[in-house]
Design goal:
Blueprint (H helix, E strand, L loop, with lengths): L1 H22 L8 H36 L3 H18 L5 H14 L3 H22 L8 H13 L1 H4 L3 H5 L6 H5 L17 H9 L9 H22 L10 H4 L3 H8 L1 H15 L3 H14 L6 H29 L1
Helix pairs in contact: 2-3, 2-5, 3-4, 3-5, 5-6, 6-10, 10-11, 11-14, 14-15, 15-16
């Protein structure tokens, strides 16, 4: 009986496997024709995605270029983008947007806020250009500095809204509304107040050669100026009971930078120019820097830097002479 039960069970399993085989065929390998067909379908999908992407960028560029003309236009586009991203796309009722818009007008909307939006949108537009032409990104350096200069000129208006200018522009509602928040912008600073990145990644690299030393020095001077202005204009100043004293006081963060970060940037400027080929002038400037700030806490580091540069130069000269002698 037990054997009979096992045999019946075995037949049941066999019948089940056979019936499954009728429904589920064994896996098939792809033929060359199959692969070609899949590649053709892939190309159709890619082409469609590319057309959609170009259309999206075109619409974004048209909207952005129109909105950067004034802070009022930038704000109007901001409202449209907020409505789309935070309300329409979220399937929220229209009255919810109207309620938000009323609160926004009472609490946040101001001439200063609108100016900050205009500067942010300017940087987003430049970011799109950099992403579209990555090989020509560094050619946008002068345009990037113009936008930073414009922000510095507006520093009094922008102080309470500087957070907008520190925000990644690809995470802004402007970018999200036009679905370009996934844009690839490798090595491009994504906020206009990323001062060190703007200089290190965009402005200075093409200037680091002997033929452009004077321009490299000017760029360093401008960088130091910009980094100082951000701290001087936007850092907190202690409260004072004396009339007019607070206006005359410099922010502690700026004074600390002048004593440390500023001097370090001056040193880095000469190191950079030396490596770019301006060895004599940079060496003289570094020695003068050391003599003037010999008691500074960074003087030992600077001394080591200078010694390493000179030693490396002597070694290179020694190798060059040895190579010349061996060739004779």
């Amino acid at each position: 009986m037990n054997f009979s039960f096992k045999l019946s069970r075995g037949w049941s399993v066999l019948v089940l496997v056979m019936s499954m085989g009728a429904t589920y065929a064994l896996p098939d390998s792809l033929s060359d024709a199959d692969r070609k067909e899949f590649l053709e379908k892939l190309e159709e999908i890619r082409s469609s995605a590319e057309k959609s992407s170009k259309s999206r960028f075109k619409q974004a560029l048209i909207a952005y270029r129109g909105a950067i003309k004034s802070d009022a236009a930038a704000h109007a586009l901001y409202l449209k983008c907020v409505e789309k991203v935070n309300f329409t796309d979220q399937k929220k009722a229209s009255h919810e947007f109207r309620d938000w818009k009323r609160r926004h007008k009472d609490r946040q909307d101001s001439a200063e806020f609108r100016r900050a939006l205009q500067h942010q949108l300017n940087w987003l537009l430049l970011t799109v250009e950099a992403a579209a032409n990555p090989k020509e990104m560094q050619s946008l350096g002068s345009e990037a500095l113009k936008k930073v200069d414009a922000i510095m000129a507006d520093h009094e208006k922008l102080k309470s809204h500087r957070g907008i200018l520190q925000q990644n522009v690809l995470s802004s509602v402007y970018a999200k509304a036009y679905n370009i928040d996934g844009l690839e912008a490798k090595d491009w600073p994504l906020a206009p107040l990323k001062i060190s990145q703007i200089y290190e990644k965009v402005v200075m690299p093409p200037l680091r050669k002997l033929a452009s030393i004077s321009k490299l020095r000017v760029a360093w001077t401008k960088r130091i100026e910009h980094e100082g202005l951000i701290l001087k204009n936007w850092s907190a100043v202690p409260n004072s009971t004396r009339i007019g004293l607070k206006r005359e006081m410099l922010p502690p963060a700026y004074e600390k930078w002048k004593e440390s970060g500023y001097l370090e940037l001056l040193w880095n400027k000469e190191m950079d120019c030396y490596k770019a080929g301006d060895e004599m002038q940079a060496s003289s400037n570094m020695l003068a820097h050391l003599a003037k700030y010999i008691k500074h806490k960074q003087s030992l580091k600077w001394t080591k830097d200078f010694q390493e540069l000179m030693t490396a130069g002597l070694e290179e000269e020694k190798k060059a002479k040895s190579s010349d002698n061996s060739g004779k």
